[in-house]
């Protein structure tokens, strides 16, 4: 995760919600209202509305364990690495280990029992296995193109052909 | 910084670990096997206990991997295929099963590619769990 992108996140979220330096998942779900979002129910960090806001906040949104800089699970890390291979470093990543309400909320929202979860353009795409498949069969390059993101692998291919 | 692998349990109980790797034989793996057989009538099915890869003792059955080859997957996108597997294993996923890696192919796909992608190395995530994944 590049420092420029990380700084842009923090500035963006801080401008909307509160002091900079707050972990993304807390800041995005109402950190300004008080220390941490307590409890589920309407308006909690795990509510449908809160999750909906998160998945729509950016073309590429990942719910994972740990952060892109330090993933805490091999499956979450695989998602980070695959995105990195495609040159996708600008995305919203939410560490569910920091927020048990979000962790449950995201599973209810997508009706998917495990973490990591990948959303493209607000739509649930799948977990690590599916992202790996999409990477291997070329679908991920196509899906990124639809979002206006040019996969770095396309440029790598071009360079290979030139040599 | 967390250790990337947990070699201790694997070396200490290599016999059990090898059996666990070859095909889960514990109660959870057996339940998973029966449910998938009933729900999807697979032509090929592997249920592997991969808990040992995640710092748990072999036979812990917290992390399973399944390879399911079934005609039921024909015409379904990967997401729909995985959802079918989740539906069959709803009770287990609500309970002790923390992680489930899935390979879901039709018999035609399996015949042309009977290989399973390598699993990513554990980075200790389960150690941070108080409950479910």
Automatic annotation (TrEMBL), chain A:
Residues 20-30 have a biased composition (Low complexity). GO terms for molecular function: 2 iron, 2 sulfur cluster binding; metal ion binding. Residues 20-48 are annotated as: Disordered. GO terms for cellular component: mitochondrial matrix. PROSITE patterns: GLUTAREDOXIN_2 (PS51354). Keywords: 2Fe-2S, Iron, Iron-sulfur, Metal-binding, Redox-active center, Signal. SUPFAM superfamilies: Thioredoxin-like. Pfam families: Glutaredoxin. Residues 60-125 form the Glutaredoxin domain. Residues 1-16 form the signal peptide. Residues 31-46 have a biased composition (Gly residues). This is Glutaredoxin-related protein 5, mitochondrial.
From TrEMBL, chain B:
InterPro entries: BolA, BolA-like_sf, BolA/IbaG_stress_morph_reg. Residues 107-133 are annotated as: Disordered. It comes from the Eukaryota. It holds the Pfam family BolA. GO terms for cellular component: mitochondrion. Belongs to the BolA/IbaG family. This is BOLA1 protein. It comes from Tricholaema leucomelas. The gene is Bola1.
């Amino acid at each position: 995760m590049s420092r420029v992108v990380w700084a842009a996140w923090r500035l963006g979220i801080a401008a909307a919600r509160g002091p900079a330096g707050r972990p993304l998942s807390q800041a995005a779900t109402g950190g300004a209202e008080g220390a941490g979002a307590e409890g589920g129910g309407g308006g909690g960090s795990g509510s449908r509305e809160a999750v909906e806001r998160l998945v729509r906040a950016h073309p590429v949104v990942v719910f994972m364990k740990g952060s892109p800089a330090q993933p805490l699970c091999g499956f979450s890390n695989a998602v980070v690495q695959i995105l990195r291979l495609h040159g996708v470093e600008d995305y919203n990543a939410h560490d569910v280990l920091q927020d048990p309400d979000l962790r449950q909320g995201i599973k209810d929202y997508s009706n998917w029992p495990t973490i990591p979860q990948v959303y493209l353009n607000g739509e649930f795409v799948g977990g690590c296995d599916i992202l790996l498949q999409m990477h291997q069969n070329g679908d991920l390059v196509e899906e990124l193109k639809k979002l206006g993101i040019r996969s770095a692998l396309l440029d790598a291919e071009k360079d290979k052909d030139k040599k | 910084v967390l250790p990337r692998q947990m070699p201790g349990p694997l070396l200490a109980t290599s016999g059990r670990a090898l059996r666990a790797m070859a095909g889960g034989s514990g109660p959870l793996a057996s339940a998973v096997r029966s449910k998938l057989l009933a729900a999807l009538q697979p032509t090929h099915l592997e249920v592997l206990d991969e808990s040992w890869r995640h710092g748990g003792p072999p036979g812990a059955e917290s992390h399973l991997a399944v390879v399911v080859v079934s005609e039921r997957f024909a015409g379904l996108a990967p997401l729909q295929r995985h959802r079918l597997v989740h539906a069959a294993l709803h009770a287990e996923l609500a309970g002790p099963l923390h992680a489930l890696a899935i390979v879901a192919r039709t018999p035609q796909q399996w015949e042309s590619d009977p290989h399973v992608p390598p699993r990513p190395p554990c980075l200790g995530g389960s150690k941070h769990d108080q409950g479910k994944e």
